[in-house]
Specification:
The protein has 559 residues and is α+β, with helices and mostly antiparallel strands. It is 59% helix and 13% strand. Helix 9 (280-378) runs antiparallel to helix 10 (384-454).
Length: 559
């Protein structure tokens, strides 16, 4: 076979670009491929199994459209230039994300982008270049970017340690309680020509006033609807109760009618599927999800233990370093005290020697005075004047001798005290030397301990033993134990979720005082009114469906 014939038999392809929320991918698509072939390829590439929530969206003449699974890709009204671009987006939304989502669906969330909070990494200004909130929200509050960053960072730090799947689920739970969550709006008219909005979502069909997209005027759950069809621009809705007349509405564009029908059929199918037993595929997915959750639970526990051990090792290291510094300071002080005591001892010794010499000199003078007194007494003086002078000299000599004796006694006592001080100073010097020796030996021991402990945060051989001992061979007893752990984790998660809602309410209350009322939009005002009345999306729809289907159909016709 010639090379040219081989070349002719090669399938013709074209390039397709798929834009997701986080990245863009390009595929080589065969011209004969149908929408399902391309969609399955994208889902396999993303590792996604809950494919029924998603679709490939494109825009034609300012109208949004979805790629049909049973139609060739190139048979759609897509642009002819390559690469042909589709957006991989959520087409349908779960009623209850916590119950329906089995596989983790990665969202471009704050927690997932930055990971767990780390005060050493996430310092002031780390959010300066991020567009954290829509400009409309920022303009609505009298808050600077720094104030927003401070509150967001505090909230971020508060939830340190939260698992990724928990963060995702909390995000989706908050989103699904918003009035406009999962609703596709279309401009319609009833048979009277009144301009209205049709809302299509996971719960059913809702009719809105064009100026109020938050609070529906009428609702028709999917379990009340038997059939939906359209001819040209007119839609016909057949209620499940055949005794009730059909009701109709008109839309403006044929392309929009196709989109409405697609969304109605898809949402209705999912609504009915939720109320039936899970298919074998979903059962397998849920079983795998339980095993995966159990495995992740064990992994989280292992990581928590490792983290705790590492933190303890770091605390021990820090304590040893602190103690080492303290011992070094004590050694320095002891050394200084030793030097001062040696200097004091030398001074005391010198002073004691001087005092002893002075005492000896005084004693010698006292002895000479005593000799002089004796000599004077022995000398016979005959005249009264001499006698009187002699008596005076004798008295002075006695006074001087007494004074000399007292001074000698005082000096002797001072010399004894100085000797005692010298002895105590030498004893202090001995104790200081002994303490310095003890501190030096302790410092050497602490340094060896510190060098071995510092390696713990990086080496931690016991961690490897823990990792090697782990096994994911799920026996019945293991599964029962894990089931109990998962149930316990679920209770803890519910408590965390409740606490999160309370914190959200506190944050709303805190920043409410900084809101600029004059910048509120009509939707802001409507939302505030609903919140003040305690009207949520779910209880509003529940109240609307308390009336009979027939009365609601009649109400719609008379709008």
């Amino acid at each position: 076979m010639s090379f040219s014939s081989l070349k002719r038999k090669q399938p013709k392809t074209f390039t397709v670009r798929i834009a997701t929320m986080d990245a863009e991918m390009e595929f080589s698509c065969e011209v004969k491929w149908k929408g399902k072939d391309l969609f399955d390829l994208v889902c396999r590439t993303l590792g996604l199994r809950e494919t029924w929530f998603f679709g490939l969206q494109y825009t034609i003449k300012d109208t949004v459209a979805w790629l049909k699974m049973d139609k060739k890709v190139l048979d759609h009204d897509v642009p002819t230039e390559e690469p042909v671009t589709f957006h991989f987006l959520a087409k349908f939304y779960p009623e209850n994300a916590e119950e329906e989502l089995v596989q983790e669906i990665t969202q471009h969330l704050f927690f997932l982008q930055y990971g767990d909070y780390d005060p050493n990494v996430h310092k002031r200004g780390f959010l300066a270049q991020e567009e954290l909130l829509p400009k409309r929200v920022i303009n609505l509050y009298q808050m600077t970017p720094e104030m927003w960053e401070e509150r967001i960072t505090a909230w971020y730090a508060e939830h340190r340690g939260r698992a990724r799947d928990e963060a995702e689920m909390e995000y989706l739970k908050i989103a699904q309680d918003l009035e406009m969550y999962g609703v596709n709006y279309f401009a319609i008219r009833n048979k009277k020509g009144t301009e209205l909005l049709l809302g299509v979502d996971a719960l059913g069909l809702h009719i809105y006033d064009p100026d109020n997209r938050l609070t529906p005027k009428i609702s028709f759950p999917w379990n009340e609807i038997r059939n939906i069809s359209y001819s040209d621009k007119e839609f016909t809705i057949k209620p499940l109760d055949k005794k009730i007349d059909v009701f109709k509405f008109n839309s403006s564009k044929l392309r929009v009618n196709k989109l409405i029908l697609q969304l109605c059929i898809g949402n209705h199918d999912l609504f009915m599927r939720r109320r039936k037993a899970d298919s074998l595929e979903v059962q397998q997915m849920k079983a795998q999800a339980r095993e995966e959750k159990a495995r992740k639970q064990m992994e989280r526990q292992r990581l928590a233990r490792e983290k705790q051990m590492r933190e303890e090792a770091e605390r021990t290291r820090d304590e040893l370093e602190r103690r080492l510094m303290q011992l070094k300071e004590e050694a320095t002080m002891a050394n200084e005290a030793l030097m001062r005591s040696e200097e004091t001892a030398d001074l005391l010794a010198e002073k004691a020697q001087i005092t002893e010499e002075e005492a000896k000199l005084l004693a010698q003078k006292a002895a000479e005075a005593e000799q002089e007194m004796q000599r004077i007494k022995a000398t016979a003086i005959r005249t009264e004047e001499e006698k009187r002078l002699m008596e005076q000299k004798v008295l002075e000599a006695e006074m001087l001798a007494l004074k000399m004796a007292e001074e000698s006694e005082r000096r002797a006592k001072e010399a004894d005290q100085l000797k005692q001080d010298l002895q105590e100073a030498r004893e202090s010097e001995r104790r200081a030397k002994q303490k310095l020796l003890e501190i030096t030996s302790k410092s050497s021991y602490t340094q060896s301990m510190n060098s071995s402990t510092t390696a713990l945060p990086t080496d931690l051989p016991s961690f490897n033993l823990i990792s090697e001992s782990l096994s994911f061979d799920f026996k019945d007893t293991d599964m029962k134990r894990l089931s109990m752990e998962i149930e316990k984790e679920k209770v803890e998660y519910m408590e965390k979720s409740k606490h999160l809602q309370e914190q959200l309410n506190e944050l709303k209350t805190e920043i409410e005082a900084l809101k600029l009322k004059e910048r509120e939009t009509a939707l802001d005002i409507l939302h505030n009114e609903n919140a003040s009345r305690g009207n949520s999306k779910h209880n509003t729809i529940k109240k609307l469906t308390l009336q009979s289907t027939k009365s609601r159909v009649a109400f719609f016709e008379e709008l």
